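Structure tokens
________________
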Amino acid sequence: MAASASVPQLSQSRNLLTPRHGVVTLYGYGISVHVDRGHLILKDGIGGERREARFPRVGHGLRRLILIGSDGFVSLAALRWLADQDAAFVMLERDGSVLATANPIRPSDARLRRAQSLAHHSGAAVRIARELIHRKLIGQEKLAREKLNDACAADRILELRIGLAEADTIVAVRQLESHAALAYWSAWRGLSINFPTRDLHRVPNQWRTFGARHSPLTGSPRLAINPPNAILNYLYALLESEARLAAAALGLDPGIGILHVDTDARDSLACDLMEPIRPHVDAYLLDWIARGPLRRKWFFEQRDGSCRLMGSFAAQLSQTAPTWGRAVGPIAEWVCDKLWSTARKPSRGFSPPTPLTERHRREAKGRSANLRTAQSPKPVNICRICGKTIVSDDSYCATCAPTVSTKALIEAAKRGRVASHAPEAEVRRSETQRRQNAAKRAWQPSDLPKWFTEEAYRTKIQPALAGISVPAIATALGISEPYATNIRAGRRTPHPRHWLILARLVGVSPTDS
């Protein structure tokens, strides 16, 4: 689609390219990456709107250079500059395809690659595949149970995860993983996708729900027909590029797979390494969708009905690349260790280096070998009416908030979206707090049976609340519906005085032990 003035591509920080989270993303036309007098020169843009940056060899903060598009050039001197600075180069398509990756070359051990090639004969392939899918299903089950509130899908995934222990072939592992995927994505099908009020008249119907993970255009996730699936495809492309870089950094061949079938259309080992991290990517998208609406201008529909990301929005998503790189690093090193253990005549006391996590260095210094949880960049918050970016966590911008009717404010406050500060609301809130505090003081721990501990609540009562409606929970406990929603989803644990009431709602007798 040709760019026009009505379809803005560049961010507000035009004419400026600065690393965010160590990532710089180039898109548009006439992209240029070259070196001038020791400095890396970057240029991109559309038409007269151009951006430019100049990075010295010291203090640049650049860890990833991501290029979206195919119009322009990258010089050999620029690739050498990136390699000298230990920065990776990644070229992506907005439909979720990885076109090229390049990272600094490190020495590799031929015995490790030989062990990788013989993994199916040594038995290491089945053990590694089981563990990778086991970790993936743990994440999918947790997401289905806690965030999608689909206990049936979560129980089905749990059942299949338990069956992994008896899978003794790669084919059996693939079958269990595919059955779990059917249950998992069925929990996403009815997920609502919100857009600002002023964008709704321009939003196609198929964009308003998540729908099926497989596109009707291809029968696979490729060529997604709505924004959430298009976002997932692009985030998975970022994860795949990080998995490629991780495998190459450890001296593994990204193309020789273990779980995925080898093909010239992909790097199969990189796809293997992605599997345990996919639920983390899914959770990032799900939190974004639950937090607020998506902007119509972030996407466009092609003539075949497929949905594509605008360049500026894809650049924003690219900032998550370091997060997925930190997450896939320990997985790649674990696979490397398992393959090395099957190598013929490995050196005694030697284990492969850990450049991704620096685990060996930290252990030698007596530090903890565990990495901190990778925090991904926070999605932008936009107004629910006009779609304007909001710095705070409010639901409406300063312009739209006064136009919202009093009735709408009251309804939004009941849904937990907007806080009402009217005097009447403050009085009601104070009375509710005094009533709840008095009930807490009057409650005695002896009112509960000895067996009814917090662990018993979490294992017997909370999972069964998925079958109880939110209004029924709110009425029984005398609480608001947003708080009841959090209790049913497991995000909040109610006061122990409520446990017996919830036990009766789900049909558990207080006399049961």
Q: What stands out?
A: The longest helix spans residues 124-146. The CA atoms of residues 159 and 180 lie 9 Å apart. Confidence is low (pLDDT under 50) at residues 1-14, 416-421. The radius of gyration is 26 Å.
